[in-house]
Design brief:
- Helix 1 runs parallel beside helix 6 and helix 9 runs parallel beside helix 11.
- Helix content is 29%, strand content 25%.
- It is of the alpha+beta class.
- A four-stranded mixed sheet has the order 21-22-1-23.
- The protein folds into two domains: 217 residues, UDP-n-acetylglucosamine1-carboxyvinyl-transferase, Chain (Alpha-beta prism), CATH 3.65.10; 196 residues, Alpha-beta prism (UDP-n-acetylglucosamine1-carboxyvinyl-transferase, Chain), CATH 3.65.10.
- It contains twelve helices and 23 strands.
- Strand 12 and strand 13 form a beta hairpin.
Length: 437
């Protein structure tokens, strides 16, 4: 179902203040539901993201016979069916807007006894799946897609999977995770090496659910034939959601925000390192481990930023945060150069093209390159931009308006609900001036 169109208008604002807790980590929420559904026993998940993407994943497992209770918001109790206990669904399995859900489920469903079909919304239906289909096919999976490797994905049941050793040409945690999840059902050993290390949420969570797995940055190895055991999961606050407030408080003079319990997985926090290199004042307090993940409270204060050449080694660790970084670069003094980020062209939108177009409309000089952009910081003006249905683009331009010379109208913002329900209310609570257009 196509969501009703929502446009925003975001106005320049004064200093931002307050203590915020952003929603739970989307990547961890997806994986917690998946592994809890395949585990033996009852798992409890606290901090679950109440977003459309993660709810879609939960609904998919409900359609395959897994009982999932919701005793209160952000809590799930999952009665695991076991590795081979899923039931054939009566219809297609709708991933909504979630590329994470579709790619990980492709690996997981490749090992089932029954046929399945994965579909998505208009945006997801244009996202490439060949990069995950090809390694899964090498394991013995039988997956058909539309021309160009696009969804829907039709997955044949009963395939005999074999472990492989592979190095995907593009560093992608989603592709790596799909291969590892298929490896749960494979004979022999499955090993993935990466051209650049990506986030290791799947590896950490497999270990938490008791599956023998070896992993290090850029490498993971497991064998099939084991069992997952129910466990309780506490989902940390999503760093990608916190990123918008980190940039906002950095850019607006006089601001000081505290973001509570933010997940700081080292394969996820490239933006933190880059913002600090640009001159940001972000301090970590109360560092602790929560469910196998490092979390901390982040205290961010206004600071003047300078443009930099973004180190390529941070790119894979901040792929979801680039729209927010583009806004920081637009408001910084000097030139910021981004390279090695071709993956941005196949996210929910072509994020390089969409951010470049929007920033130009707001008076910023941006030169696109095949794998990045050159952004010359300057004075942002008001105007009208399009998010192209990309939740992170919409929220990033809401941040840009805070330091613009006039209001910014942002088109097509309904998909913000996929990752950050309540964004408008939380943003306005700390000083944004954001409203429906």
């Amino acid at each position: 179902m196509t969501p009703e169109r929502i446009d925003w208008i975001s106005h320049p604002a004064g200093p931002l203040h307050g203590e915020l807790t952003v929603p739970g980590d989307k990547s961890i929420s997806h994986r917690a539901i998946m592994l809890a559904a395949l585990a033996e026993g009852v798992s409890r998940i606290d901090g679950f993201l109440e977003g459309e993407d993660t709810r879609a994943t939960a609904a998919i497992f409900g359609a395959m016979g897994v009982r999932i209770e919701t005793p209160s918001a952000s809590r799930r109790i999952v009665h695991g069916a076991g590795l081979h206990g899923l039931a054939a669904p009566a219809g297609v399995l709708d991933c909504g807007n979630s590329g994470t859900g579709m790619r990980l489920l492709a690996g997981l469903l490749a090992g089932q006894r029954f046929d399945s079909v994965l579909v998505g919304d208009a945006s997801l239906s244009q996202r490439p799946m060949r990069r995950v289909i090809e390694p899964l096919a090498a394991m013995g999976a039988r997956i058909e897609a539309e021309p160009g490797g696009l969804p829907p994905l039709r997955i044949a049941g009963g395939a005999a999977l074999s472990g492989i050793a592979c190095t995907p040409p593009v560093a992608s945690a989603q592709v790596k995770s799909a291969i590892l999840l298929a490896g749960l059902y494979a004979d022999d050993v499955t090993e993935v090496r990466e051209v650049h290390p990506t986030r290791d949420y799947t590896e950490r969570m497999l270990a938490a659910f008791g599956w023998p797995i070896e992993f290090a940055p850029g490498w993971a190895r497991l064998s099939g034939g084991h069992r997952l055991h129910a466990t309780d999961v506490v989902v940390p606050a999503d760093f990608s959601s916190a990123a918008f407030f980190l940039v906002a408080a950095t850019l607006v003079p006089g601001s000081a925000l505290v973001l509570r319990g933010v997940g700081l997985n080292p394969r996820r926090t490239g933006l933190l390192a880059v913002l600090r290199r640009m001159g940001a004042d972000i301090v970590e307090q109360n560092r602790r481990e929560q469910g196998g993940e490092l979390v901390a409270d982040l205290v961010v204060r206004y600071a003047r930023l300078r443009g930099i050449d973004v180190p390529v080694e941070h790119v894979a660790d901040m792929i979801d945060e680039f729209p927010a970084l583009f806004v920081a670069a637009a408001a910084a003094e000097g030139i910021t150069m981004v390279r090695g980020a071709a993956e941005l062209r196949v996210k929910e939108s072509d994020r390089i093209a969409v951010m470049a177009d929007g920033l130009r409309r707001l008076g910023i000089a941006v030169e696109e390159t095949p794998d990045g952009a050159v952004i010359e910081g300057g004075a942002l003006r008001g105007g009208e931009v399009a998010s192209h249905g990309d939740h992170r683009i919409a929220m990033s331009f809401a941040v840009a308006a805070l330091v613009a010379r006039g209001a910014v109208r942002i088109g097509d913002c309904a998909n913000v609900a996929t990752s950050f329900p309540g964004f408008v209310e939380l943003a306005n609570g700390c000083g944004f001036r954001l409203a429906p257009a």
